[in-house]
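writing this on my phone so excuse typos. first protein, seq and then structure
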Amino acid sequence: MYYPGPMYPSPFNQNRHIIEVTGEGTVSAAPDKSTIVLGAVTEDVSLSKAQAENAKILSNIIDALVKLTIPKEHIQTVTYRIDIRFDYEEGKQILKGYQVTHLLQVTIDKIELTGLVVDTAVSQGANSISNIQFISAHPETHYNHALTLAIKNAENKAFTIAKTLGVTLIHNPLQIQEESHAPEPIPYQTGVYVKSAATPIEPGELKISAALKAKYSYF
């Protein structure tokens, strides 16, 4: 049974009895945003040629994405790297050329455009697609709902324990300690892209969970 009133000993009494429980809550939500890392990797014996080719591809990709209504501020460089390539012949190191890698992170507000963004980038010369992730624009709203469920779950557990023991549970918890964090995005596994007729990319559902520990007193 529960008892919230002041007629019984205060829950802050030093000799109080305590029930400690965990609470968990999970909600499902459809993602409404996605992010993709895409770009080009070019190689040439001449560094300037490798850079020029790479710059041309990236410029074409950006222009094409903007035409898809992707705002420029949603397209940002996350990697720009130049690597020297070597071959080894008879124990000797021989310069093979240079590899230039330029990757962009693209944030897509219209999740249904995700596959089209991939295909459009590839049609403009992108040969690296990775880290496709699906997220919620307002994850805190779903997380707070999960947290509410976790609190109710902890309360039900404490009540069940108290009822089994034949004691009276004081409704207001002495302490609640949050143990979980905001939801993580859903990764969509992919790597170097091989062009196909169309790219079906299914976002699935976000599973957003919350967990906590709670302490209740009883008499």
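second protein below, same order as before
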Amino acid sequence: MSSIRRKLLLTLIGALLAMGFVAAVATFFSAQLEFNKFLDTHLKETAEALSESVMHNFPGKSPTHLTIVGDADSYQIVIQVYDSATNSLWQRDGTPTLPLPEAPGFGMEKVDGRTWRTYSAAAGPLIITVAQDTAVRTQLAASSAFSILHPLLLLIPFVAIAVWIVVGSGLAPLERTARSVARRSPGSLTPISTKGLPAELSGLVRAINELMLRLNESLTAQQRFASDAAHELRTPLTALKLQVQLAQRAKTPEAQQKCFVKLNEGINRATRLVSQLLTLARLDPDARSKPVSTIRLAPLAMSVAEDMTPIAAQKSISVRAVAEEAQLDGMEDAVRLMISNLTDNAVRYTPEGGHIEIRTKAEGENVVIEVADDGPGIAPEERERVFDRFYRALGTKTSGTGLGLAIVKRIVDIHCGTIEIDDGIGGRGTCFRLRFPRLGASSAQ
């Protein structure tokens, strides 16, 4: 497992070494250039000073006895005097013999595998040559460069300790947060505190808190679904069991047939309940992640009206679509289910001979879907509760699961819409008015 502390430590120390190396190289070349200029000047001044001194002392004194002002041992200067009149050569003991120059001034000579920087000057019949090994110059420049790099090398342990301490203190909030999360129970989804956290870490913690919030909502929905499903399935299953027992005890075929009819009705109710529960479960976890498309609401409303007409005709109820052209970005199957549930709900509660209208229209930046009837309506005090799961208004004799409007509400929420209940056709009955932004589904993702 990679370590941020180790990575930062190695990176910073490596950067420091690289910086020191680059500084040393740059210093070396800069020092070498400056030393070359300085030592060339020193060679020239030494040769010119010797030319005047030799003219007054030669041949009485050998050049080996001459004293050169400013000649340090580290410069390793070689002096050679050639007398053209007598073809004789004087030089310091132990120094190499340099070739005679072709002309006065600076030059480069190679003797015994070593390169020499030379300066020659004429003094009457004498030719004075002063030389210096170029390796000496390189050594002086390298020594100067190392003097810069040396303090950096000494600083590396201190920098490493400082980086270790700084990175450790910087990562301490992350480690505290990790320990806090590790101590939590599996069911604890309360937000992590961001107090005292640095800006970089607080952003991560906020993202984790948002994720836990969504996870908590999902788990709560699943728990609620499991609880509701268990509760609601218990009643129809118990009724089915009783009907089977009654059928077994029936003494006549007519009594058995009557029990079987009720048993079939109970099975149909249980099947519808399971179907509605599964639909609700598919919509609960994270329906916003499902793909969306542009829905033409007018053809959709007409299609739902055609599908519901045969069912409504059994109660002599008319279903018609009053649809203006409007478009909505969303999940077409979910929107169809939403309109179908509202229409089916209207068919169930509207008395015989009633009327149902499915309306669609565009209003500015919104689209509106309405399902209206002229049935008994919903009391104002119950209009907020009808969207709760398994809630059914008091006094209704119509069978149902109590999930149809809960599914409608969930679909409306997924598409970032709003829902309101008003009076229906002719001031009677109920009108469910659904309002959506045209790009509601897209913006919700």
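The helical segments are 4-57, 134-182, 199-249, 253-283, 297-313, 332-349, 404-414, 440-444. thats all i got for now
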